[in-house]
Prior knowledge:
Elements: E1 4-8, H1 12-23, E2 27-32, H2 35-44, E3 46-49, E4 57-59, E5 63-66, E6 79-84, H3 91-98, E7 102-110, H4 117-124, E8 129-134, E9 139-143, E10 146-149, E11 161-164, H5 172-181, E12 187-190, H6 193-214, H7 218-223, H8 225-244, H9 257-264, H10 268-278, H11 296-303, H12 313-323, H13 328-341
Parallel strand pairs: 1-2, 1-6, 2-5, 3-10, 6-7, 7-8, 11-12
Antiparallel strand pairs: 3-4, 8-11, 9-10
Helix pairs in contact: 3-4, 6-8, 6-11, 6-13, 8-9, 8-12, 9-10, 12-13
Amino acid sequence: MNKRIAVIGAGALGGYVGGYLAHAGHDVTLVDFWPEHIETIRRRGLELDGLTPDEQFTVTRARTLHLTEMQQFSRERPIDIAFVAVKSYDTEWATALVRPYLASDGYVVSLQNCLNEERIAGIVGWGKTVGMVASLISVDLHEPGRIRRTMPKGGEKHTVFRVGEPHGRITRRIEELRDLVGIIDSARTTTNLWGERWSKLCQNGMSNGVSAATGLTGTDCHRNDVIRRFQIQLGGEAVRVGQALGYHIEKIGKMEPEQLARASEADPAALAEIEAVLRPAAGASANPRADVQRPSMAQDIIKGRRTEIEFMNGFIAERGRMIGVPAPAHERLTELVLQVERGQRAPAPDLLGG
């Protein structure tokens, strides 16, 4: 595959995916707006870290550009695949920046947490828009030029990358894209992009904002009975909104969507089943990194950055209002995280009663 690849937003996930592809010999350009990050990669390479020795290496083959240097693309062969891996609120401008440099059959891939395909299509059109869900990958840009993965590779147990067309058909380009990212971790094509997207949104909606509001790690949130029940409420509301929107929601981690919804509605058997999935087992974790890892939104709070809460829990609540399906837990969490983000409150478990 002799494709020109650009990654717009070489942060945790974008840098991880782009770095792996460059390390494998693909023509990759990493574009980012954090000067220190780009300069560090230029000076010493992009250091990738994981849970096994094979995942620990330095990428020296990736080309880098500061955001202000993107005009260099105008003198080069057009871009075949542009991964947009910025925060959701930066989607439109990032897509607009790369649009002039796309090949006639080039396309943009949303490599993001939230449902941003419509925003991308508003800039480049639906024909140049592809979706890709990265599930349970958990990566962290912990300092300039250094990205670490805190979850084991999915392999045969869990498919990490799900690639799909907005129209649901299997096309040659998404088969090629599946094979491309398949060198990083397990990958498959899907005819149900929107159901996959909503499933990931449910999963993120149960964890990201909760960790941001409480200051707790994901594992500690699950250990706290009150907070865990609140997470179940979030998950159930998100499932009911998605069902009302007509999505066929895929499995949410190890949880069946209908069981999660019933658990949030106080069905005793469903609640016991979901609690058993979420509650951490007694004893030491087999993966010590998981015990200290915070979801991306909690990392944003620590670093003083804007969060994606309005595009995650706020989006679920807004869609619920639009179709008359209440999502009060999402409304509450959105407001709490915005208050924390603005410095009006400090993150604490008791914000959620924990």
